[in-house]
C-alpha cells in the first residue's frame, strides 16, 4: 500500500476497526475482483477474525471540505492491529490483491480505530 504508516501500537490490545473511505475508479473491479483476492490473501495467511461490519454508500457531505467526496464507507474489524499490519506488509497481499485495489480505487483513506464501550 502506498503511503501506509505503521505506527508503534502496543501489541495485544485486541480488535481494531479500520474505517475505509473509498473513491472508486472502477467499482466492479473493487467488489468483484479485489474483495475476493483480499479474502484469498487472508485465507493464505491463516488470519481468522477479519469481518466486514458495514458497507455504506455516501449520500451527502454534511460537515466536510468540498474535496472530501467519498463514494462509500467500509468498516472492517481485524482481530488486532498486528493482524492488519501482517496482511498489509505481506508479499502475498502485494502480489495478489494490491494491484486490484489500485485498479479499483481512485483514492482511499484508512483510519485505524478501536471500539470504546460506553
TrEMBL record:
<dbReference type="InterPro" id="IPR011008">
    <property type="entry name" value="Dimeric_a/b-barrel"/>
</dbReference>
<protein>
    <recommendedName>
        <fullName>DUF1330 domain-containing protein</fullName>
    </recommendedName>
</protein>
Amino acid at each position: 500500500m502506498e503511503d501506509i504508516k505503521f505506527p508503534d501500537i502496543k501489541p495485544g490490545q485486541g480488535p481494531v476497526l479500520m474505517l475505509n473511505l473509498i473513491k472508486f475508479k472502477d467499482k466492479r473491479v473493487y467488489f468483484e475482483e479485489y474483495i475476493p483476492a483480499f479474502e484469498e490473501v487472508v485465507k493464505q495467511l491463516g488470519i481468522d477474525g477479519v469481518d466486514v461490519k458495514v458497507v455504506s454508500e455516501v449520500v451527502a457531505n454534511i460537515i466536510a471540505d468540498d474535496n472530501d467526496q467519498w463514494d462509500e464507507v467500509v468498516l472492517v474489524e481485524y482481530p488486532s492491529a498486528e493482524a492488519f499490519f501482517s496482511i498489509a506488509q505481506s508479499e502475498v497481499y502485494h502480489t495478489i490483491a494490491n494491484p486490484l485495489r489500485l485498479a479499483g480505487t481512485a483514492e482511499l483513506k484508512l483510519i485505524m480505530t478501536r471500539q470504546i464501550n460506553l
